[in-house]
């Protein structure tokens, strides 16, 4: 099975969730996107170096449940699929994960769930999305995507857009603050001129000295202008 543009678009609406899994003698965090419907599921895992995926439909899901000795009623298949979606909820104390990477580049993500005294394991048997594709691909592969394109679509491009929007907001706030500072400084300048003119006129009429206006200490007077 190949990972296509349709798969890619389907998963774009999904949110990445982190899952910690045991691998060999250590643990590693994998990021997961998934879509579960009434008759199928599509999951994608990545360690930000490689990307794996699995798509499974109703008949295959039913067969896998039968292999686990789980009696599955056809009319309740959608409930079982939604039950599987809970395996990919992060930080659930009743679920643990283990990863096995095989030599053929396949990726087994095994989730173990405790249900009372029982355990139910579900294995997501994923295929590696090729890191790159031949430049001169055939027409039959026009819809196929490589791992680099998937990471660009789901990680790099969103990060660029978020950073750009953040920088634009910062610039807008900076301009607003600068505008307010300019307005304040202009108000201080005008108040200084008004006070100086008033002081000069009063000195001519009464020959008395008045305290000059100090913009650094006369904020109360400036505030009265806005009241």
Please describe what this structure looks like.
The protein has 5 helices and 7 strands; from the N terminus they run H-E-E-E-E-H-H-E-E-E-H-H. By secondary structure, it is an alpha+beta fold. Strands 1-2-3-4-7-6-5 form a 7-stranded antiparallel sheet. Strand 3 and strand 4 form a beta hairpin. It is elongated, with a radius of gyration of 33 Å. 42% of the residues lie in helices and 26% in strands. It starts with a helix and ends with a helix. The mean pLDDT is 85. It has 2 domains: 133 residues, Beta Complex (Dna Repair Protein Xrcc4, Chain: A, domain 1); 62 residues.
Short description:
With 227 residues, the protein is an alpha+beta fold.
SS-derived structural category: alpha+beta
CATH class of the largest domain: Mainly Beta
If you compute it from the alpha carbons, what radius of gyration comes out, rounded to the nearest whole angstrom?
33 Å
- Share of helical residues: 40-55%
Average of pLDDT = 85
Shape: elongated
CATH homologous superfamily grouping of the largest domain: DNA double-strand break repair and VJ recombination XRCC4, N-terminal
* DSSP summary: helix tally: 5
CATH topology value of the largest domain: Dna Repair Protein Xrcc4, Chain: A, domain 1
**What is the strand tally?**
7
Q: Provide the number of structural domains.
A: 2
The CATH architecture assignment of the largest domain turns out to be: Beta Complex
Low-pLDDT stretches: none
Kindly report how far apart the N and C termini lie: 72 Å
